[in-house]
Structures are given as structure tokens and as C-alpha cells.
Amino acid sequence: MTFATTYDDTNIFARILRGEIPCDRVMENDHVLAFRDIRPQAPVHILVIPKGRYRDAADFGANASAAEIEAFWRAVSQIAGAHGLTDRGFRIIANAGADGGQEVPHFHVHILGGKSLGAMVGK
Ligand code: AMP
């Protein structure tokens, strides 16, 4: 799979942001939307996405505004707390590009928790 260097407005998270398809929303503000992953890999599996058009973590870190970046990471922290993950721990994953196994080319992090998550990277 190859990845475009420009943002693809047809990706599924762009369609969710436009309200064209539903999501199981857990929080939303001016800059951020969070919703449950449709194929959960853990008891808690939430996706956090910026509302801006960023392809991946590198694009977001390089081009998002300070307000967007702050809102994003504060939302991640808030969601982890609200779902009872901060005592036992949790994992944040941001896949990027082909080697990272990114399926949806709109920047997002996975928040995973609610069980022991095992090794960080499979063989
Ligand atoms: P990634 O491989 O990091 O791009 O992960 C994309 C994630 O999006 C996968 O875990 C999918 O299960 C999830 N996903 C795809 N479509 C939807 C959808 N319509 N609603 C919620 N999660 C989705």
C-alpha cells in the first residue's frame, strides 16, 4: 500500500467528521473527536482524532496549531481518566504509514486498556 502526500478527504474518519457515517462517540470538542473502535482489541479501545486534516503523527506534529495539539493531548488524558485507565495503566498507539500499518490516513491514536496488553510489538 502506498500513502498519498496530500490529505485524502474520502477516508473513513473524514466521513465520520462530516457526519456521513455514524460513530460511537465518547467525547467531542472544537478540535477533537473520540469514538470507540469498531473492531476493539481490548475492553477499552477508543480512537482519538483531531478535527483538522492531518494524515499522520508527523503531519500533525509539524503542521497543527498549538491549540490543536494541546486540545488533542488533553483529550487523550481526559479520556484515559474518564474510562478508569490511569490506575492500572493503558497504551497509546499511533500507526503511521505503510511500515506502521496505518489503515486510515487521518491522524489518530488508539487508547487501549482494561486488560494486560502484553508485548509492545509483535514478532
Ligand atoms: P490504523 O490501523 O491505526 O489506521 O487503525 C484504524 C482503526 O480504525 C482500526 O482499528 C479500525 O478497526 C478502526 N475503524 C475503521 N473504521 C471504523 C469506523 N467506522 N468506526 C470506528 N472505528 C473504525
Describe this structure in words.
By secondary structure, the chain is α+β, with helices and mostly antiparallel strands. The chain has one domain: HIT family, subunit A. Helices cover 28% and strands 20% of the residues. It contains 4 helices and 5 strands. Strands 1-2-3-5-4 form a 5-stranded antiparallel sheet, with helices on one face. Strand 1 (25-28) and strand 2 form a beta hairpin. The chain is globular. Adenosine monophosphate binds at residues 12, 23, 35, 37-39, 47, 95, 101-104.
What's the topology here?
Layout: H1 12-17, E1 25-28, E2 32-36, E3 44-50, H2 57-63, H3 66-82, E4 90-93, H4 97-100, E5 109-113
Antiparallel strand pairs: 1-2, 2-3, 3-5, 4-5
The structure holds adenosine monophosphate.
- Which CATH first-tier class would you pick? Alpha Beta
Q: Can you tell me the CATH topology?
A: HIT family, subunit A
Q: Write down the oligomeric state.
A: single chain
Q: SSE string, helix = H, strand = E?
A: HEEEHHEHE
Total domain units = 1
Assign an overall shape: globular
Question: What portion of residues is helical?
Answer: 25-40%
| Strand-residue proportion | 15-25%
CATH architecture type: 2-Layer Sandwich
Bound molecules: adenosine monophosphate
Q: What is the assigned CATH homologous superfamily?
A: HIT-like
CA-CA gap between termini: 21 Å
